[in-house]
Each structure stands twice: as structure tokens, then as C-alpha cells.
Amino acid sequence: MTGPRVSVVVPHYDDPQRLRWVLQALEQQRGAPPIDVVVADDGSPEPPALPDVRLPVRLVRQDRQGFRAAAARNLGAANACGDPLIFLDGDTLPAPGFVRAMVEAIARHERGHGVLAVGRRRHVRLEGLGDAQILHHLVREQVPADRDLGSPAWLTGGYARTRNLTAAGPEDFRLVISAVLATTRGLFERIGGFDASMVGYGGEDWDLAFRAWVAGADLVHAPDAVAWHDGPDLAGRGFDIRDRKNLESLALADRIPLRSARPPGVHHPVPRVLVTLRLGRSGAAAALTCVGELLRGDDVGVWLLDRDEVPGPLRHDPRVHAGSPPPAALARSPRRVDLRQPLLLGRTVDQLTDLEVPNLLSARDARDLARGVTLPPTPLPDGMSVLHDEPFLERRWAVAEAERGAVPC
Questions:
Q1: Hey, what domains does the chain have and what are their CATH numbers?
Q2: pLDDT score recorded for residue 4
Q3: Cα 68 versus chain centre, distance
Q4: pLDDT score, position 409
């Protein structure tokens, strides 16, 4: 197989033996395009000595400021020259067909939106084996049964359910792991790579996968792209994983705005429903009325596009902002609602289905917008109305209170 060069990025920290095994395994790849390797060292006490292999291998380093695998992978990608980019953990040894299978999976599924491909991680016990034995097993693809720890059931079950991610939904970002990951350079750069602000074990791959999903990318699992992780999956390492997984969940709660990833009723900087609103000539009373109705929805953030400051009592609500949404919110919010003027919806904003009302309202999935999916225009649905004038707030609130059955004092 010939073609453009592919880059393999290997994050590393103070583990020269496994790094040697990984590079020796990459040297044995069959049928792959030319490979260049970037070892991204996350501040090891001493720079790793690179073994003599028949591949171009470069070392890049960053200072040690905690466990920064996300930043290390970004550093490696920035210094790589190939496309696609393959990310392979420093304790994960690729079988001889790994790179070829990853490259072919990307080429097969590329439809113009970018592809995020994940290989098949299998677990193996390498303790007590020498370099020659390990390389022999990998090249012959015959790992002894007493050393083969298999693949995590939660991954194999997920890939079966989603038909190798071709039928993945927004919740299936959890099936993408950075230990055996590949993507087009264009997609990686478009979504900003890994979130380098994430420090500590885990979560950066799920965050990347969720942003790729929102950005319209295709996800795919390449079962023939096998790589062997030295040791069991996290759940099989003989310690209580609760604290470690809780740290991961806490980091993701601010980043992944799905009900399965955060508690209800808590304000987060990235909302599940991102609303943009143009107030035009409307004053603070109309703004309070319209935005107050919007905020009755679950996990909503509102940005007032044509205001430099938030008017009236709304300025005290952390869910309401002046100006344009920040890139982090645009990259992660899966639902977008755009009001071109103040409206009364007659329902919560998170209940809106796909809708395109010319010059008034758009309610869409961010993924569909990214993929260029269009909707036919429709009239404003029954129960919705344009808020043309400033409302009489006292009367409006009194009517609303009476409709709830409240008794005036």
C-alpha cells in the first residue's frame, strides 16, 4: 500500500521499556503508507532514549505540570507531518495490520465531514517476556491464551449495538478511546484538537469525540485495527476506581451538556440548548418576558447578540449573556435555537422540534447544521407569537399567577 505519509503520535511519560516495544511494533507494520512517528513526552524526569528503528521518529517535550495527556497529544500532532493522524498510547502495542486498518477505515467512511476512527484495544499480560518474545507474538499475531486478557465487554457490546459506530448517537462518545484513535487532520484542526486544559487521568478522548459528533463528523470502529494494551482494563487493576472516575465525571460535567453527563438544575458554562436572541428595539420589559420564558427550559443558555450588556434584572442571571456565544459553547452545545426577534413560544425551548420559520425562528440540532442538513420553511406554529410591544409586566404577572390558581394576599 502506498500513499501520503501517516503520522503516529505516541504520548509518553517515564516508561522507556514500553516505548521501545511500541516503536518496534510500529516498525513491523504491513501494507501501511509511509509512517512518521512523534513521541510526545509529558515531562519525564529524563528525556527518553529513542531506540534505533527503521522509521523516522522525533521527540517533542513539554514541562511536567501534572498528567497532561491531552496537551501532549496536541503537541505531537502540531509537530507531525502526516494525514491522517493516529494516536497510540505509550503502553499499547499495535499488531502488524493496525495502521493500515485505521487508514482504510478513515478513507472508507470519509464523506466530507471528517472521520474519527477507533481501533480495537485488546489486553495482554506481557510481564516476564523479553523483547524478542513480545515482537514474535505480535508479528505472528499469536498471543498465548494464558496472556490474552481480551477486550473490555463494555466496548465490544457498544460496538455491536452501534454497528461499529455507524449507527452511533450523541451518547456514544463513550465508545471512543484515545489509546487507539485516528482522525483526519482537517477534522482535528477544525475542532481544536484535544482540550489542553484537561489535567488528570481520563475524559479528554470523550470530550474530543463529543465535539467531533457535534461538528458533524462520522464515527467508526475499525475492528481489524488491533493494538495490545499491556495489562488489564481500568476496572481490572485491583483498586477502587470510584475516585478516579468521579474526577473524570466532574471534568466532563462542564464540557458535555447531556443529561447523562451532568446533574439537572445546576448551571454550567456550556448549556445543552444554546439560544441566540436579537432584541432589536425591544426594551428591558420585553427582554425579561422573552428570556424568562426561554429559561423555563432545562439546561438553557441565552446570548443577546445585539446587546453590549444584559438589560434589567436579567443581568443577575448567569445563564444570560450579552454578545456572541464563546467558542467552547458553540463547539459543545448540541441544540441551537435562534430567535431573530422576541417571541412568546408557549412552551419550553427544549421542547422545540426541528423548525425553520423564516426571519423569526430556527431550532436545530448542531450536528445537522454542521452537516448542511436543510429544513423546509414553515409558518410560526400555533401557540407562538411575536412580542411586538413592551408588555405591561404587572398585569402579565398577575394573570399568570391567577392561571396557576394562586390567591392574592
A1: 6-254 (3.90.550.10), 273-405 (no CATH)
A2: 65
A3: 17
A4: 43
What Rg, from alpha-carbon coordinates, does the chain have?
25
Is residue 270 within 8 Å of 325, Cβ to Cβ? no
Q: What is the pLDDT of residues 297-306, one digit of tens each?
A: 999 999 999 9
Which parts of the chain have pLDDT scores under 70?
Answer: 1-4, 235-239, 401, 403-409
pLDDT, tens digit (0-9, with 9 covering 90-100), for 310-367: 999 999 999 999 999 999 999 999 999 999 999 999 999 989 989 999 999 999 999 9
User: Buried b / exposed e across 41-71, counting CB within 10 Å, b at 16+?
Assistant: bbeeeeebeeeeeeeebebebbeeeebbbbb
